[in-house]
C-alpha cells in the first residue's frame, strides 16, 4: 500500500474514447490469463470494457468515483442487468452497453468465473494505489519527467499494474489521436520485460514508435522468455528495440541473436561482406566476462 509520499496511478484518467477503454481492458486481461481459454479471455475483456466504459462515461452521473474503486463498487453492489438496461434507454449506442451484451451471451458459469477473477485481481492494495493519480502522464510530452516502476519481488499481484502503466504510456505516446511534442523524446527502458505481461498491440507500437519520438529499449536474458508471451513474434520484437542490454544466459538462440545484432551495423558502415564483420561469435557471447 502506498504511503502519502508515493505516487498513485489511475488509468481511467487517461481515457479519451471507446478505443482507449477497450485497450485498457485488454491490458488488464493480458496479465496472468495466458493459461485460460479464449472464451474466458473474451468474456473478461467484454465485462471489463463494459464496467470501465460505464464508470468513465456515466460514473459521476450515477454517483461513482471514476477509478477502479468505483468499478469494483459497481460490480459488487449493483444488479448489472438492470443498470445497463437503464443506460440503454438513454444511450442506445453506448459502447459500455454493447460490451455488456457481449458478456451476457456467455454461460452463467463463465460469467461467475469472470466476476470472481475480476474481484480477485483488485484487492484493497490495488484499489488504494489507483484511487488518485499523481503521475501526470499527459505531461510526458510537455516537460522532462522520469517515472520508475518498481514492483514487489515476493508476489506478483502488482505486476499487471506496472504492465498497464507501461502499455498505456506507450499507447498514448504512439497514437495519432494525441499531439506529438517536438522537444522531448519519450524513452522507455523495459527491465524484466518477459515478466511484465503481454502488452497489447506491442508489435504495432514498436513499428511506429520513432515516428512519435518514442524510444523503446529492453534488458534481455532469453528470447524464449518472450516466446511464452508473444509466440513467433518474439524475435521480431527484439529486432525492433532501439537498444538491448544483454544480461547473459545460456539460451543459444539468444546468443546467436546478440552475435548477429553486432554484425549488421558494422556491415553497413564498412561495406564489407557479412562473414567478415562478426564482432563476437555466439560461443564468445556465452563466456564473455561480466563487468566489474
In a nutshell, what does this entry contain?
The chain is mainly alpha-helical and 292 residues long.
Helix content: 40-55%
Note the run of SSEs as H and E: HHHHHHHHEHEHHEHH
Low-confidence stretches: 1-5, 264-270
From the spread of the alpha carbons, the general shape counts as: globular
Question: Count the helices. How many?
Answer: 13
Strand count, sense and barrel status of the largest sheet are:
3 strands, parallel
Average residue-wise pLDDT? 81
Radius of gyration: 22 Å
Strand order across the largest sheet: 1-2-3
Structural class: mainly alpha
Strand content: 5-15%
Blueprint of the fold:
Layout: H1 18-29, H2 38-58, H3 68-77, H4 80-90, H5 95-104, H6 108-121, H7 124-129, H8 159-173, E1 186-190, H9 202-208, E2 214-220, H10 223-230, H11 234-239, E3 243-246, H12 252-270, H13 282-287
Parallel strand pairs: 1-2, 2-3
Helix pairs in contact: 1-2, 1-8, 2-5, 2-6
Mind explaining what this structure looks like?
Helix content is 50%, strand content 5%. With 292 residues, the protein is mainly alpha-helical. The chain has a 3-stranded parallel beta sheet, with helices on one face. Strand 1, helix 9 and strand 2 form a beta-alpha-beta unit. The protein is globular. Residues 1-5 and 264-270 have low confidence and may be disordered.
